[in-house]
Amino acid sequence: MRRAASALKRIYSSHNLAAVHHARNLLETEGIRAVVKNEFLSSAMGDLPPAECQAEVWVLHEKDFQAAETILRALDAQNDLPSWKCACGETCEGQFTQCWRCGAYRAG
Ligand SMILES: [Zn+2]
Prior knowledge:
binds zinc ion, 3-stranded antiparallel sheet
């Protein structure tokens, strides 16, 4: 029996927890099993430098890694979109159509 641990691969990491969950949801939508790691670490240790507290997305099956990479590369391309300011005052990154803080949709 093969050990599952060796098949886990990190596909994405960011200090933006919303972006990490977005990436995971995107993979799950495409039928790729993925898990988020370090999310509690990152929220509990907000004073650490970003690199120290990045949340990560891990693909459960190595065979899915290449497909996942393709999906997330498309996601990265969307990062060039300009950020927008929500009515609640939160600045949201351009790839999000919904405010991560209050859940409101982007106007316009
Ligand atoms: Zn908002």
